[in-house]
Each structure stands twice: as C-alpha cells, then as structure tokens.
Amino acid sequence: MPSTHSSYYVTTPIYYVNDAPHLGHAYTTVAGDVLTRWHRQRGERVWYLTGTDEHGQKIQRTAEANGVTPRQWADRLVTDAWQPLWDHLGIANDDFIRTTQQRHTDRVQEFVQDLYDKGEIYKGGYEGPYCVDCEEYKLPGELIDGEGEYAGRKLCPIHKRPVEILKEENYFFRLSEYGDRLLAHYEANPGFIQPESARNEVVNFVRGGLQDLSISRSTFDWGVPVPWDHQHVIYVWVDALLNYATAAGYNENPEKFADTFPADVHLVGKDILRFHAVIWPAMLMAQGLPLPGRIAANGWLMVGGEKMSKSNLTGIRPQDLTSHFGVDAYRWYFLRAIAFGQDGSFSWEDFTARYTSELANGYGNLASRVAAMVGTYFGGTLPAATADGEAEAAVHAGLVRAVAEADRRIGDELDFQGGILAVFDFVKQVNGYLTEQEPWKVAKDESEQGRARLATVLYTAAESLRAVAVLLNPVMPGTSRKLWDSLGAEASLGALAEQRVQDAGRWGTLPAGSTVTKGAILFPRLEEKPAV
Ligand code: ME8
C-alpha cells in the first residue's frame, strides 16, 4: 500500500513491563526487525518503533507485590530485561518509547483534552466484568465458567482467571458512532487487516455493534491524569495506543510527524487486534488524523495447546535458545517454521532438525564448500566465468525468481516464511548444481577447457552466495556479514547494508579477482542440548 509520507514506519506493540520478555514478545519484535531491515535494503527510509507500556493496574499490582513503586519497577524491567534482550537480538529500532516519559504523557493529555473539547468524550456510568490481565471490560457472553479452584466464578476466556465486577463513573469515548465509518474503511482497504481470518473477525465484531468505550479509571492512580478531572487516570489502552503518534512527534515536531505518521504497518499479536483495528482507527478518525496502512496480526506461539504467556511459559527464555543455536538461527527459526498469522508450537527437536538440515548442512555447507574450493583450486582468488552454459543459465534464472519472490513475500506481504523459503530453495538449487557439476572431478582436467569449466562453476556458486548474503541479511545479519567477509565482497561492493534487494539478482555483481577466504563457520555443530 503506497504511503503518503516518506518514511516507511513499522511498530511493535509496546509491551507491559509487569515481567521480563518471553519468546512470544521476541517473535513479534524480530518480525518487525526483519521487515524494517528489508525495507532499508530496498533503499527506503524506515522508522522502526518499539517500547514499553508502563501504566495501569496490572503494573501497579506487580510493583506493590514486589515492594517498589511502579516507576521503580518499570525502570528496573526496562533496563535489566527489555532493552538488553533487544540489543542481544540485534533489533535495529530507531526509538524506544516508554509511556511514563513526559514526551508521551503531555501529548496524551492534549489528545484526550482535544477530544473532550470536541464533544467526543462524555461522563457516564458503567458496571461490568473486567479482566485486569487484559486491562479490558468483557462482555458477559464472552466469559467462561470456572472449574476447580475457580468453580462458580466467571473467567476471562484468554487468561482463564476470574474477572472482577467493576462499577465506575467514567469518561466515555463515543466509539459506537464509528461503526459505519470503520466498516467502510475495511471495505475500501482490503489489506488494512491481515491475515484474512483476522479481518473477518474484526468485521463481524464491528457489525455486531460497538459500545462506547470507557476511557478513564478512578479506582487506582497509576496512569496519566485526565487533564480536566484529576480524580481519573486515562485508560491504559488509550494511553498505550497513542504511543504510535507521540513517538512520531504528534503535537511536538510537525515535520517529523508529517514525514512519519501514520504507521505503514502495526505489528500486533492477534490478542490485541481489536484495540488496533477498531479503537485506534476510531480515535484517529475522531481527531481527523490519517489511518495506518496495515494492522498485521501474528498468531500465537503455543505451549501445550495454550497461548504462551507470562503465566504459561515453556520455561525457556529467548537467551536459552540463542546461547545454544546462536542469535541468527533464533531470528530465522520462528519466522521460517511458522506461517505468519498462524499459531505455531515451539519444539526443541524441530529447531534442532531444521538447524541441522537447512542451516548447517544446506546453507552453511554450501558456503564452506565454495570458499574451500576457490582456496584449493585458485589460491583464494575468485576466477571469472568464461564458459557459461545451460546449467549456469538455470542458476541465473533461479536467482531472479528467488529475488522477486522474496521481495514480494517479505517486503509486501509480510509472508516471512514464504520469502525465506524462496531464498532457501535457491540455496538448494545451487547445492544441487555443485553436486551435478562435480567441480572436484573437473579439477582433475588440467586442460584450458577444464580450467575454464572449473572457474565457471566456482564463480557461479560464489556469485550465488553473494546474492544469498544480501537476501538473508535482514533475517540473519551476523551470518551474512561472515559470508560477505569470506567472499571478499566489501572491497569491491561496499557495505552489505548498502546492497539493494532490487539489484541482488543482477548477475555478475561480485567481480572476478575478489579475495575469497574460508572465514568463520556459519552454523557450528550444536552442542548437547542443555538442561533448561
Ligand atoms: O498487550 N505468541 O502487551 P503484552 C505470539 N501492552 N506473540 C505473543 C505471545 C505469544 N504467545 N505472547 C505475547 C500488551 N506476544 C499491550 C500492548 S500496544 C499499544 C499495547 C506478543 O506485553 C504479541 O505481539 O501483553 C502480543 O500482541 C504482545 O506480545 C502483547 O504484549
């Protein structure tokens, strides 16, 4: 979807700081990072935002239970857990917003005050079941019956914990008036909500009729005060959604705001789709601001048939996996193994099997074979291809296909799995080409013709790897870097990050004469599985 502003703007949800990040959070953030790096390699200006959601009852209660103030708790979690994990995973975000920052809270107050002045917000009463884990009122029909320790009580369908009946006099946003406009927007912009199943769910929900939204709370005080009534704090979800505007310079930096806002893609888990696809656009409509290009919902990482959550973990932290498989394989695995938008289960066995067959024996082996043979047969200087034939033409065509397919799938469709597979199919093709051409046999033919054939086969394989390094750079930047070094590509082609996806298929880019070295092993053999 073309954007009217000039930066490609990608966001993750801002995560609650009630606990440390787990595999599910890292899943969304890595996906955003790959999308960001992909668009950067298209030569676009990209702005990638992540951050933390620090207000609300859930955080307040967690802090109390730990004997610190909510602010202290949030500071500790951000500094000790969240930011270090994103650094560790190589997340290239341009900003990190915390909802307790004044640059955010001031703007939230202005936004809400504006809506109040326009008559979009009014005072009313509400009583209903509330789930603190969701920070959301539930409809009675959504609740499920408790069993065992919760027998006789009504539970949140997502968290399986009892809801509380809240009765409050609150401020309400006239959400119910936006149903028709929202439906018209979904209709006119079929790509607004992705995947299709998520879109259908939202459309049905809105068709069922919207209620006005309670946007303030008065039973606790950990939040942004309602500017005209300090007995209330602003509902944590209204506060949180606004991060996408405040970080982009809303009411503060008009130039930056015009350049960045609205987001091209909001990445969210499907648990928070309605907030992003219903409430957020309605808030923007009320303010006359433009709507985001796309809300893309990822599925859930599951464990034992349930959504992986802070209370329901595999017991495996992202760091447990990266220390075993490496950061790059970790970034690759979840996007490769699970179709984006679908639920998927993590298993140590599946990760091990794919690491071994696709990374180590497939990609890694190709890279090490080619570097070793250029070393052995040509003293480490890449020879020129002078005897291209049908077999080479097939490789050239395979690359062009892989580039187009990966670019469309990852860059446009957010089909990370399909895009990665397109590149790995090409890796497979090149491995097959080497097996067929048997350069180790051709090497025995020392005639001029034999040398030309050998040179052509090795150039073809090395040039293919040059393109693979570029295409996989957004997914596995550390590995691509090693390969780039091993191909001696920097000297003639410059920095890897400067290589354009669109040009990756241009055959003959890596010049003959490049210095090829064996370099580091891309995917070392795995150690014994640790006890975690
Ligand atoms: O909802 N599988 O924060 P949160 C896949 N603060 N993704 C998962 C996941 C799983 N099992 N568990 C979590 C909030 N996620 C709000 C957001 S935005 C304005 C405010 C990911 O800490 C997924 O992206 O509960 C999900 O939407 C997000 O973490 C929820 O993080």
UniProtKB/TrEMBL annotation:
A motif ('KMSKS' region) lies at residues 307-311. Its cofactor is Zn(2+). It catalyses: tRNA(Met) + L-methionine + ATP = L-methionyl-tRNA(Met) + AMP + diphosphate. Zn(2+) binds at residues 131, 134, 156, 159. GO terms for biological process: methionyl-tRNA aminoacylation. The keyword Ubl conjugation does not apply. Its EC number is 6.1.1.10. A motif ('HIGH' region) lies at residues 15-25. Binds 1 zinc ion per subunit. The keyword Metal-binding applies. One of its GO terms (molecular function) is metal ion binding. Residues 8-370 form the Methionyl/Leucyl tRNA synthetase domain. One of its GO terms (cellular component) is cytoplasm. Keywords: Aminoacyl-tRNA synthetase, ATP-binding, Cytoplasm, Ligase, Metal-binding, Nucleotide-binding, Protein biosynthesis, Zinc. Residues 382-528 form the Methionyl-tRNA synthetase anticodon-binding domain. It is found in: Cytoplasm. Monomer. Is required not only for elongation of protein synthesis but also for the initiation of all mRNA translation through initiator tRNA(fMet) aminoacylation. Belongs to the class-I aminoacyl-tRNA synthetase family. MetG type 2A subfamily. This is Methionine--tRNA ligase.
